[in-house]
Amino acid sequence: MRCVHVPNGFFDAPVSIGAGVVAAAGIGLCLKGARRELDDRTAPLAGLTAAFIFAAQMINFPVGAGTSGHLMGGALAAILVGPYTGVLCISVVLLVQTFFADGGVTAYGINVTLMGIVSVAVGYGIFRLLMAVLPKNRSSVTIASFSGALVSVPASALAFVGLFALGGTADLSLGAVATAMISVHVLIGIGEGVITAVTVGSIAAVRPDLVHGVTLTPAAPLQLRNDADLPVDTPAAGGVSA
Questions:
Q1: Are 76 and 116 within 8 A, CB to CB?
Q2: How far is CA 130 from CA 76, 140, 157, in A?
Q3: Cα separation values, 30 from 25, 85, 111, 116, Å
Q4: In Å, how far from its chain's centre is CA 115?
Q5: Most buried in the list 84, 121, 160, 229, measured by CB within 10 Å?
Q6: What confidence tens digit (pLDDT) does each residue in 184-197 have?
Q7: Alpha-carbon torsion 100, 168, 158, 33, what sign?
Q8: What letter would DSSP give residue 77?
């Protein structure tokens, strides 16, 4: 079992089509919203964020017997470049991954809905909520990033269970699917939280202006001094010169 990526044929046609409509509407909304988030400074960061998430998703970490997980990236993308742009980043990553058979082509809308829209909405929502009540410092950014990413993964798994109840094709009971998905993805969420917290915290420590919605003063750079920088003593006025 791997993190949420849905293959072809796992859901029936009505659910796949419905999720596709939701994903298309969400992407369209995010294309408009991203205009407010992107500028000459943040647009390159969005590309780097998408590339980082794509590469990081290739690395799987074990969470139990026969089960592995990888970075989902929704919360990370939203925190770094904004929620609208974050959904677009994840959508592009998922589109590219379909060419590598990592997620089905007919399930693309489902994957965007689960890993893009749901994970971004939940992860970024929790991040903003915690940042509103925690002290405005880098430790709070790290805590809020970890929490948002941690919860976003089981939230996506719970949405998966909801879609399965509507139109899952596998011969499995809903209770078994819910138990397996949520329990495993809580563990995967811990890994997601650690990766997100380390990444966001590292960037916030040196360039908080590159973290969307965070207003922290960057640490003052170290300054080296030499003898030429030292003040030169001058004789006092009226003093006796040699």
A1: no
A2: 15, 8, 22
A3: 9, 7, 16, 11
A4: 10
A5: 160
A6: 888 888 989 999 99
A7: positive
A8: H
User: For the chain, where are the E strands, in sequence order?
Assistant: 61-64, 67-69
| Helices vs strands, H then E, count in the chain | 8, 2
Domain 13-229 in CATH 1.10.1760.20? The answer is: yes
Distance CA 112, CA 173 (A): 25
- The DSSP string of 173-237 is -HHHHHHHHHHHHHHHHHHHHHHHHHHHHHHHHH-GGGSTT---PPPPPP----GGGSPPP-PPT
**Mean per-residue pLDDT for 74-85?**
94
Give the Cα separation of 154 and 161 in Å (integer): 10
Residues 44, 195: contact at Cβ < 8 Å? no
The predicted model scores a pTM of 0.81
b vs e for 56-75, b when ≥16 Cβ sit within 10 Å of the residue's Cβ?
A: bbeeeeebeeebbbbbbbbb
List, in order, residues 6 or more apart from 23 with CB less than 8 Å away: 91, 108, 109, 110, 112, 113, 116, 117
Q: For residue 156, which phi and psi values (nearest 5 degrees)?
A: -65, -40
Cβ pair 39, 25 in contact under 8 A: no
The CA dihedral of 195, 197, 199, 205, to the nearest 10 degrees, is -160
Instruction: Say if residue 25's pLDDT is above 50.
Output: yes
At a CB cut-off of 8 Å and minimum separation 6, what does 17 contact? 109
